[in-house]
Amino acid sequence: MPQGKTTEGTNGMPKVVLSHPSGARAEAYLHGAHVTSWVPAGGEEMLFLSERSRFAPGKAIRGGVPVIFPQFADQGPLPKHGFARTRAWEVEEAEGAAARLVLRDDEAARALWPHPFTAALKVSLGERTLETALGITNTGERPFSFTAALHTYFRVDDVREAAVEGLQGTVYRDKVDDGVERAEDEPAVLFRGETDRIHAAVPGRVLLRGAAGGRTVAIDRDGFPDVVVWNPWAELAAKLDDLGDDDFARMLCVEPACAVTPVTLAPGQAWRGTQTLSIV
Ligand code: TA6
User: Fold this and answer.
1) CA-CA-CA-CA dihedral for 274, 277, 278, 280, to nearest 10
2) What is the residue with the minimal CA distance to atom 8 of ligand 1?
3) Which of 103, 149, 191, 256 places its Cα 20 to 30 Å from the Cα of 132?
């Protein structure tokens, strides 16, 4: 690991700090390659991070951008959302406004998922943009399949005033209603209670209105066909011990994902999925 590239974060856990000449800043923990902060130039924190979040080996950070790999949610036999978010990644590059973090299979990973792989997260900061690009390479001799997501927690002023646009005309699996499939007819998704939906094959840009400071964030994706929208609301939030009881009102997850159809990689083959967030 290049020395001097990391600084101590919460509980002494190493993180990289990205800064852009415009004044924009971001931070990513090596634990999970987890982006925990994004402040665009002249703006405020755009990512939600729970004050009760545990920063500890083997635990997932609550907030920011958890990297979900190789299993989305409970769609398989692995621990929920896979293991990438609870493992220590390595810094391959960290200079100014960009960093590249890498995770390779080891004995512990292979005990859960017997496939040689390299995962890389490239984080690139612009004046008013944050790009996170996840790359997966099959370094083994047999094909494997995975599901993945960038489980982004946005800060919102009040989720009841927020709206997500760009999902009209898509079909979603409604996880708060036994996974029933519905068509989204409305131009905007509004939040009035627990929401947990997997929108399949979303064609274009998604907009989050009512993000921190009343801003609108554009979410562009490449390689991630699906979009997951999640808010636990009060009752479920109260059951999550790393989330404050009222935190549900200040957060909203909008997540580019490969959740509906797994990605299959032949030996030597690579896949890349990118999320670009822009203040518009
Ligand atoms: O992406 C939405 C989701 O799968 C929800 O069902 C909800 O459980 C959320 O992720 C958070 O999961 P976590 O394991 O981090 O508590």
Assistant:
1) 120
2) 73
3) 191
